[in-house]
Amino acid sequence: MKFCNVCGHGVDLRVPPDDHLERHVCGHCGNIQYLNPKAIVGIVPEAEDGRVLMCRRNIEPRLGLWTFPAGFMELGETSGDGAAREAREEAQAEVEPLELIAVINVPYVSQVYLIHRGRLRGTHFGPTAESSEVRLMSEGEIPWDDIAFPTIWHSLKFFFEDRRRGRYETHSLDLKYRPRPPQRAEISGGNI
Amino acid sequence: MKFCNVCGHGVDLRVPPDDHLERHVCGHCGNIQYLNPKAIVGIVPEAEDGRVLMCRRNIEPRLGLWTFPAGFMELGETSGDGAAREAREEAQAEVEPLELIAVINVPYVSQVYLIHRGRLRGTHFGPTAESSEVRLMSEGEIPWDDIAFPTIWHSLKFFFEDRRRGRYETHSLDLKYRPRPPQRAEISGGNI
Ligand SMILES: [Zn+2]
Ligand SMILES: [Zn+2]
């Protein structure tokens, strides 16, 4: 970030008056460009038979690994709205957002995940530019070793545990350390 | 947002390839400047005697009204870290962050509130540039009609209800409609 997005002049990194952290400050127009953590919204879509809708990533990072629909929250939407939008965009699926089941801080990438469970409406879903494959899976079919991100793995665990005991609640988790990138041999269970 | 913060050239508002919303796109270097919702972190600091630490706002908006410590989440922190930081900055207080007690979507300002309860450490606290007055208050002393924001009001209600029943959980709420700005006569209970 080198230029002011209001006036186009160069910005400096310095601590503004009444602040305590360095910000990108424009010496020409005075604009301050803040960088903020991003919210990721996601949803675990449950079909009538109890299976959940999973997507195989067709994009980097973690191309080829599995997730439920999730992505950056957009301006003007709630976490539930955003989660349902992601299901449409990534899986062609209409999903009614229900309880917030997980809030996961990921400070090493400055992200907060807000994960809902949802009810899959109808039977239509399918691949998209972001998902090479979209499938309904029972708990036993979830590819636990091929899940794209730790946040997704933990959210799925919360979902299935809560479903088993018959009560959903919002789980909180801080993932404070960046996981070591999984090695291919580990991901495949050592079969390579 | 008129200029690219990477190269300083003018940006256009258009839908990038593989996207579905208008973004600020630089025709010169290709950079896309996304606008994202912001996370607000806050904390209800509880003293040993059960009173909670409240701050009278010394800044706009809602100058003179009451809140607990809360503010924009910063890069690289968890919601709990950030909530504790706000307590130091706004109330000179050391607070240990505990459970997440509220997640509140406020889509009309593109914000998500993440509110923790916390344990006030020691007995030191006091006014700051942001808070003209900082006070410990029992539930009966909370100025419910002079609370700065609906998110703060709801979070306090959740906190006291959960404390009464002896179990804290994470409450979710969507505030979908902008409240009508309170009139002075209403705030003071009609005494003016
Ligand atoms: Zn400027
Ligand atoms: Zn550019």
From TrEMBL, chains A, B:
It comes from Solimonas fluminis. Pfam families: NUDIX, Zn_ribbon_Nudix. Residues 36-160 form the Nudix hydrolase domain. Keywords: Hydrolase. GO terms for molecular function: hydrolase activity. This is NUDIX hydrolase. It comes from the Bacteria. Transmembrane segments: none annotated.
